[in-house]
Amino acid sequence: MSDAARRQRFEAVAPALVEPLRRYLARRTDAATADDVLAETLLVCWRRLDDLPEEALPWAYGVARNCLANARRGVRRQERLASRIAVVDPPTATTPGPGEDGDPELAEALAGLRDEDAELLRLWAWEQLTPAEIGTVLGVSANAVSIRLLRAKEKLKKSLETRKDELAAGHEETNGGRRR
């Protein structure tokens, strides 16, 4: 493929990828890292343009997921090095993840799930991907995604129901500070 044809194909595909990828990354990391990872993801898409399938977004989500994992590994390496070089202040708390600002029960329930289950649910609910598209992102079959998604939904449902029951039980036990 000529350079002009490559450029033309990338310019046709990239605009449809940018905003969904930006939202995907913003839900998983801080703004600066999201911007860096988005740039890295687009660079990988450009370099591997010949590998880019017709349905580019799920493939690009997979690339973004890998780039984010690389960025996180890089941060961990930097932190280990900094701790060896000098005594530093403890790292600041991480920024709230998706759902933590709006629905604390949902955030708590998601935090209680395995990382793989939580990510699967986020891809399904927040990114609105189909099992086949999620399979592309995660590198597994659509059938495996469907089974895992069903199990993850059940785990989340049970976790939310348990929290709801615990809250209800807590309200029943209190009597507004009065004794009966």
From TrEMBL:
Question: What GO terms in the biological process aspect are recorded for it?
Answer: DNA-templated transcription initiation
InterPro entries, from UniProt? RNA_pol_sigma-70-like, RNA_pol_sigma-70_dom, RNA_pol_sigma70_r4_t2, RNA_pol_sigma_r2, RNA_pol_sigma_r3/r4-like, WH-like_DNA-bd_sf
Give the domain of life.
Answer: Bacteria
| Molecular-function GO term, any one | sigma factor activity
Looking at the keywords, is Methyltransferase present?
A: no
Where does the record place the RNA polymerase sigma factor 70 region 4 type domain?
105-156
Residues of the region (Disordered) are: 160-180
UniProt entry keywords in alphabetical sequence: Sigma factor, Transcription, Transcription regulation
| Family named by the database record | Belongs to the sigma-70 factor family. ECF subfamily.
Record-linked NCBIfam families: sigma70-ECF
Q: What is this protein called?
A: Sigma-70 family RNA polymerase sigma factor
Q: What is the lineage of its organism?
A: Bacteria, Bacillati, Actinomycetota, Actinomycetes, Propionibacteriales
